[in-house]
């Protein structure tokens, strides 16, 4: 592999150190060291983006897997990732690639195969994908690669999607936002204590990201994984839903079932009644669309008209069984406008 490119968000500091400004951690990185994400390294007073183009996963996925239910239902998205994450969630289900760089020594090459932006876009076009998704790990730690892919994807008429934890600074977000079609933001809880203890982060920057994305005109859907006993209390979920409704009532909220993994293997999986309760709280808060995830076969995976309750998009898991919306963006029964990107 050639020398990694210089990162785009940093400033030099005294003694050869650098200050990374990509995310709110704002790591001060000494010469030869890496930031908390494990993929941005100070070499001779320059911050390098080790993850640029180092693809560890590339798959053609249903867009519903992101999950995004209001972006071209039934379409396919070429999904790519590089190793790394700026959070350390105790329940991460992709920890084998998201946390891997933290265990690598300074100067050690990141895993993956070199995949230049032009090759990503060409692969998406060949596969008949409607979009390219930055997903599986945390896109913010390979943000420069995302930006360069998105610039080429827009020229080829492809949508671009970020599936992100939302722990990102304003300027990098705005730099990609102009070319980003949609995002699914993982709002992990509505308590700062949960973020600090379970994820190694803070809540407010994630809320700021959701608001900034909507202000930039990016279509946003939000996912919350319900972990029994940690973030699934009625009061917290009601507050979270009310906050989402205050930003945009049409912003879909996905409440998803937890399955024990990584450092939280001792907890039970989310019971179905918790998903139903969270959906009810979201609808009571005024949200127009609330979905349940990781619990296939229940009524919470379909899109219904908020006005007349007509079935608009019927799903089973990641498969669209019926789509009555098409490119119209309105209920065919009552004419209610359904927010999303349909064409």
Structure explained in plain terms:
The protein is an alpha/beta fold and 343 residues long. It folds into 3 domains: 40 residues, no CATH class; 248 residues, TIM Barrel, CATH 3.20.20.70; 42 residues, no CATH class. The chain is built from 8 helices and 17 strands. A 9-stranded mixed sheet has the order 8-6-7-9-10-11-12-13-14. The protein has a 3-stranded antiparallel sheet with strand order 1-2-3, with no helix packed on it. Strands 15-16-17 form a 3-stranded antiparallel sheet, with no helix packed on it. Helix 2 crosses helix 3, helix 4 runs parallel beside helix 6 and helix 7 crosses helix 8. The radius of gyration is 20 Å and the shape is globular.
Keywords:
343 residues; TIM Barrel; 9-stranded mixed sheet; 3-stranded antiparallel sheet; 17 strands; 24% helix; globular
